[in-house]
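Sample entry (211 residues):
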Amino acid sequence: MRINKLFMEEKTDRIMQAVAGVLSEKGYQGATITEIAAKAGVSRGLLHYYFKNKEEMLSRVIRHNMDGIFQNMQECFSGASDADELADGLTSSMRAILEGDPQFFRLFLESWTLSRQGPVAEELLKDIHTRFREAVSTGLLEMADRMAPGPDYRFDGLAAILTALVDGLGMQMAIDVGLSGDEKVWKSCREAIRGLVASHIPFGGKTWQPV
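Predicted structure, serialized as tokens:
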């Protein structure tokens, strides 16, 4: 039974990788079920067993990738003791995704286009952005309570701005891949996160000063 389970997990992972690769390379409109099945080494029938259509493929792949991103983000917040460490952690995590898995944001761009055409992609984006903002807000709240307990903090606004920063930078780099190798961009990203966080949480009574 365990061997069968491992086999199925391996096959599912291979299919998910094939879906991500073909959709990223060919685009949603250009990719075909036949190409994805061939890339995964499975039949079209088996592919339809896992997914109803290409829209569901895109949605499942993005949700699958987001699970790892949420985990990395939680680790950034739990391991940071001040705004500098949080900015370093979040920037490094974002850079690792954009440089190590550039197809993720290309798929995200595809979902933005599809969100105006059908409910699946629209609900996907709403859900992911809501979860991302809530995760950022929760991380900031726990960090504030840990470092500077006192007032009743609310970080909904800051979470929305940080989410927009990730979205905007990721989409730019999905289109202009050269940006991901520009150290000035990452330095500015780190400084922007540091300034935003430090202006909302008085770490040890310190106020933020630009460097």
